[in-house]
Specification:
With 383 residues, this protein is mainly beta. The chain folds into three domains: 23-113, Immunoglobulin-like (Sandwich); 128-228, Immunoglobulin-like; 230-383, Elongation Factor Tu (Ef-tu), domain 3, CATH 2.40.30. The chain has helices at residues 70-81, 195-199, 294-303, 347-361; strands at 23-25, 32-34, 41-46, 52-58, 65-67, 89-90, 95-102, 107-113, 138-141, 148-153, 160-167, 173-175, 179-182, 187-192, 210-216, 221-226, 235-240, 246-251, 255-268, 271-286, 308-312, 315-323, 339-344. The strands form five sheets. A seven-stranded antiparallel sheet has the order 18-17-21-22-23-20-19, covered by helices on one side.
Length: 383
């Protein structure tokens, strides 16, 4: 007598959604599939609030059902959610937990982090192991500049620290121990890493003796080199980097104002009149001195950014940036400036920016609570 045939139940993954990671960058989100599948299935994606953002029906081919193009859909959803750059504080716009439902086979979820770039770094690393920079771990900063880092705090016990490197009176380069600068937070948080803030943790060190500082720890940190050079038209930009969080760069070169005026002409009692006068003002800028090779990649990130601001008297004003035709030899072109144009989203900011530059050129200090005085000067006259 033959042995009875035992039919084993199918594996748990049969016919269910496969290929879904626990964490993914939106730019790297994979195609999903299910196999074997013999009949059409409904596919639904829901956001954290339980709202449906995608509902489709798929038919299998050769008992395999494939769902493609989700990275574009999820990137667009997060980008539309991430309309304004969060320059400081908690950022809930760049990450969301989505539910993926295929037929009646249950629900699977995935944390998706917004990103415009592709990366070989596992997405899990950006949830508590790495800063959400474009992974350039050396930056040039200025004593009066603004700097930011964004980090995922897994729990309130996680700390981010900083240490200062300075020139000792003995002539040696010394460093302080690491001091905690951020703690007690959860989730993605953008915090200030400007020189003025980090220096406040080390009051016994003279500012002029500070050479550079590191934020992070011994094994992983971002190093800020302090540039004390004088530039005639120094301007700082803050922009939404590839992860949708703030990054900064400086215009150290010249800034040229271009005015394109237009008007309509009509006649009243045989006398010509000007009507509908308009001035389209743009600025042509040069990056000026480039210190590091990685700065070219940071500028490329800025040129592709949907959200860019220029600091005018410490206040960010929104601008639209267009890269000019630049040619860089990656082997020999280091320190070659990049050229681009920008214009302000609010035309009133154009006047504030020009007056700000004029005041800098006159070696004054802009400290008038934003009030423009007559005769081309601010409240405190320069010496």
């Amino acid at each position: 007598m033959d042995d009875p045939i035992i039919i084993l139940p199918p594996p748990s993954w049969w016919g269910t959604l496969q290929g879904l990671p626990e964490v993914s960058l939106s730019s790297m989100f994979p195609d999903l599939y299910a196999s074997p599948v013999s009949d059409p299935r409904d596919f639904i994606i829901k956001n954290e609030a339980g709202n449906t953002i995608l509902s489709e029906s798929y038919k299998p081919y050769n008992f395999r059902l494939e769902i493609k193009g989700l990275k574009e859909i999820l990137s667009m959803y997060l980008r539309r959610k991430n309309q304004e750059l969060v320059i400081g504080g908690e950022n809930t716009q760049i990450k969301e937990n989505f539910q993926f439902i295929l037929g009646v086979d249950g629900t699977k979820s995935c944390d998706v982090i917004y990103s415009r770039m592709k990366s070989n770094i596992p997405a899990e690393k950006f949830k508590g192991d790495l800063f959400l920079t474009t992974q350039y771990l050396k930056k040039i900063t200025m004593p009066g500049g603004k700097e930011f880092l964004t980090y995922y705090f897994k729990n309130t016990g996680v700390q981010v620290s900083a240490r200062m490197y300075y020139l000792h009176s003995s002539g040696q380069i010394m460093n302080t121990p690491y001091v905690s600068i951020e703690s007690g937070k959860t989730g993605f948080f953008a915090f200030d890493t400007s020189f003025s803030r980090i220096k406040s943790y080390f009051p016994s060190i003279a500012s002029d003796n500070c050479l550079f500082y590191r934020v992070g720890n011994d094994s992983y940190n971002v190093e800020y080199l302090i540039d004390r050079s004088t530039y005639p038209n120094l301007t700082q930009l803050v922009f939404m980097n590839s992860f949708g969080v703030p990054e900064t760069l400086y215009i150290r070169g010249e800034v040229i104002q271009n005015v394109n005026a237009s008007f309509e002409e009509g006649k009243v009692h045989h006398i010509s009149r000007k009507w509908n006068q308009r001035e389209n003002e743009t600025f042509e800028a040069s990056t000026g001195k480039i210190f590091l090779r990685d700065e070219y990649l940071m500028w490329r990130d800025l040129f592709m950014s949907p959200d860019v601001y220029i600091y005018v008297n410490g206040t960010p004003r929104k601008v639209f940036v267009t890269e000019s035709k630049n040619s860089i030899n990656r082997l020999k072109g280091i320190n070659k400036s990049l050229v681009f144009t920008f214009r302000f989203a609010d035309e009133n900011d154009t006047w504030d920016y020009m007056r700000y530059l004029e005041w800098i050129l006159e070696h004054g200090v802009w400290d008038d609570e934003g009030i423009w005085m007559d005769s081309g000067h601010w409240l405190d006259e320069p010496e």
